[in-house]
Amino acid sequence: MACTLTLDVSPPVHRWMDTTLERDVFKKTVPVLAARVPATKTGSLLKSDVMKKSLMDLPKVRSVLRDPHDDLARLVLLNVSEYAALSPEVRNFLQEQSASLVTHNLDLTYDYWTADEILHSVLPEELCKGSPSGFAITGHLAHMNLNKEYLPYKHIIGQIILDKNPMIKTVVNKLDSIHTKYRFFNMELLAGEPNYIVEHHESNCRFTFDFTQVYWNSRLHTEHDRLVQLFEPTDVIADVFAGVGPFAIPAAKKGCAVFANDLNPESARYLTKNIVDNKVASLVRASCEDGRDFMKKVIARARDHPFPAYTGPKLSKMQEKEEKRRLQLAKSSPPTVLASVDKSTVNNQSPRQIISHFVMNLPDSAIDFLDSFRGILSESTSERDLSGIYTEMPMVHCHCFTRELEPDRAQADIRQRVESKLGHKLGAEVTLHMVRSVAPNKDMYCISFRLPRDVAFAR
Ligand SMILES: C[S@@+](CC[C@H](N)C(=O)[O-])C[C@H]1O[C@@H](n2cnc3c(N)ncnc32)[C@H](O)[C@@H]1O
């Protein structure tokens, strides 16, 4: 007869808790059978095919213990509590190995069970189906989005998440409200330290910011990467709604020159810190202006105070050393050796004074800002004749929401709104990228298009 009896290691049920988590009540003693064998025979038990299905295999539980009564013996724990549950083959094998069977009490406590298991034993049964244990992590902080039926248990839920994830120090719940202007979430502390200044790593960059004061969304990571990959290292980028720099700083790390702007003074403050921390101060200029003003001024700023030319990829320490050595060698050698110096690091371009990309990630209203492009390069706006240097128009990457969920209809809706705001039809160079679904009836997109020349030079 095959062994079917399994051990019940589920946590005890304590559905009476609501605001305070009582960890001590999570205790359970599970009697299990153990095969007592001489220490030298432990290996043959553990490796035996016959025993495979009968050995204890529980996470965080050691399955071989010292026999408390005999230093030379070991207890190999089995996954049953009764002799009757062992198959005849297993019984025979144990007999051949001169194993005796004893009962061992397995003491399980709060630390043993997972967050989900503990949650299921404290929440009312009807709430156990849709478990609330999902959260996103930003730095040391976990943020949850609890449905209202879970709110009476929010502190217990937060405490369990905190206990079960050692790298998390603070657990918050996002509130429904979002700051209307600066787009950050309002949140309440559920458990842990009331410390909201996080250090978060994305795309090989370090971002520090106060999560209660600025916008940040880790789910946009792939969108940040996607746009940055479109940029050439020689490009100049104007990031109109830059936040704390998730487009601007990785772009600068690859060599781009960036004008990064955000109206929220706290975003601009942390953006400045992040620029310094990521050692891209020579490539990113931060500002704190309304997007419209920034769009109008940035053209003249690039023209009047160009960024230095791109000088090739940043060298690693080893490459730098090697380059120094080669230059040294070149200096002290005849001209034939000089010719072998790597040309890729030699600066032979002119300063960067034209904007190649505008990034506009304010999905709620970025389209409304598009009319600011009208006449942006005209002589009357920029007080300069830019027709000679803007031989190629900048690309615009504008994020937006739509309630049209079918791709063709979404495209038609977004294109129509963009063209209406620009006051001009878009040209051939248009792509639409679905970023993510933000609600059951709302999707986020990024429309990328070449700014029509007639719009930019409109009088
Ligand atoms: C959706 S967030 C995007 C931030 C960042 N680009 C990112 O991807 O995480 C939009 C940003 O626009 C800023 N903002 C809102 N209104 C603005 C305006 N009129 N001018 C400039 N920035 C604005 C907000 O403070 C916020 O940081």
Describe the structure.
The protein has a seven-stranded mixed beta sheet with strand order 13-12-11-14-15-17-16, sandwiched between helices. Helices cover 26% and strands 25% of the residues. The model is unreliable at 335-348 (pLDDT under 50). It has 13 helices and 17 strands. The protein is α/β, with parallel strands linked by helices. The chain is elongated, with a radius of gyration of 32 Å. It folds into three domains: 23-112; 115-195, GMP Synthetase, Chain A, domain 3 (2-Layer Sandwich); 222-307 and 350-456, Vaccinia Virus protein VP39 (Rossmann fold), CATH 3.40.50. Bound molecules: S-adenosylmethionine (SAM). Residues 181-183, 215-217, 220, 241-243, 246-247, 261-264, 267, 290-291, 361-362 line the site of S-adenosylmethionine (SAM). S-adenosylmethionine is lined by residues 181-183, 215-217, 220, 241-243, 246-247, 261-264, 267, 290-291, 361-362.
Give the helices and strands, then pairings.
Elements: E1 27-38, H1 42-47, E2 64-67, E3 70-77, H2 88-96, E4 100-109, H3 115-122, E5 136-138, E6 141-144, H4 154-164, E7 170-178, E8 185-192, E9 197-202, E10 205-210, H5 221-230, E11 236-239, H6 248-253, E12 257-261, H7 265-277, E13 284-287, H8 291-304, H9 317-331, H10 335-338, E14 357-360, H11 379-382, E15 395-402, H12 407-422, E16 430-439, E17 442-450, H13 453-456
Parallel strand pairs: 6-7, 11-12, 11-14, 12-13, 14-15
Antiparallel strand pairs: 1-3, 1-4, 2-3, 5-6, 7-8, 9-10, 15-17, 16-17
The chain binds S-adenosylmethionine.
S-adenosylmethionine is lined by residues 181-183, 215-217, 220, 241-243, 246-247, 261-264, 267, 290-291, 361-362.
